[in-house]
Amino acid sequence: MKTAIFIFLNFHICTFCFSQNAKPIKKLDGSKVSQAALTKQLQSIASKASITGLSIAIINDRKLVYKHTFGFAKNADKAPLNDSTKMYAASFTKPVSAYLFLKLAEKGMFNLDTPIFKYLKNPVGSYDKWKDLAGAIM
């Protein structure tokens, strides 16, 4: 659980507070940090927190601008973590989804008081994953 919380916090902070190209990473406050300095800082945090493995991705202007992995996929055999390693992230999608929907609502693209089914192109039960809801009154 400690790993999942750490991953969430760092992903959230990095995703929404930094942007990066081959140039220094620009933070929302206008200050900048080099890719090397960010990598060193994240490596230090992961080490101090005794995190076995950490994967970070930073998205800016809808583009992946920074990604890095730290540590091991499995601590027992010291197999290195890479960007295709599957990781357990607990309930990571819930706060990320909530944040994204709140941002959409803030921009007027989504109304929090409108039932979700009204945003779908077809009735809920017509989707393969939700066939058991066919005919449900929404």
Biggest sheet architecture: 3 strands, antiparallel
* SSE pattern: HEEEHEEEH
Low-confidence stretches at least 5 residues in length (pLDDT < 50)? 15-21
The helix content is 25-40%
Number of strands: 6
User: Could you report the average pLDDT, rounded to the nearest whole number?
Assistant: 77
Which structural class should the secondary elements be placed in?
A: alpha+beta
- Quaternary status: single chain
Q: So how many helices? A: 3
Instruction: Please state roughly what percent of the residues sit in beta strands, choosing from under 5%, 5-15%, 15-25%, 25-35%, 35-45% or over 45%.
Output: 15-25%
Query: How many distinct folded domains?
Result: 2
End-to-end separation: 36 Å
Radius of gyration: 19 Å
What best-fitting shape do the alpha-carbon axes yield? flat
**Biggest sheet: strand arrangement:** 1-2-3
Please explain how this structure is put together.
There is one protein chain. This protein is of the alpha+beta class. The chain has two domains: 2-100, no CATH class; 108-138, no CATH class. 32% of the residues lie in helices and 21% in strands. The protein has helices at 2-17, 35-48, 93-106; strands spanning 18-19, 25-27, 32-33, 53-60, 63-74, 79-80. It has a three-stranded antiparallel β-sheet. The protein has a three-stranded antiparallel β-sheet with strand order 4-5-6. Strand 5 and strand 6 form a beta hairpin. The longest helix has 16 residues, at 2-17. It is flat. It starts with a helix and ends in a 32-residue tail after the last helix. The model is unreliable at 15-21 (pLDDT under 50).
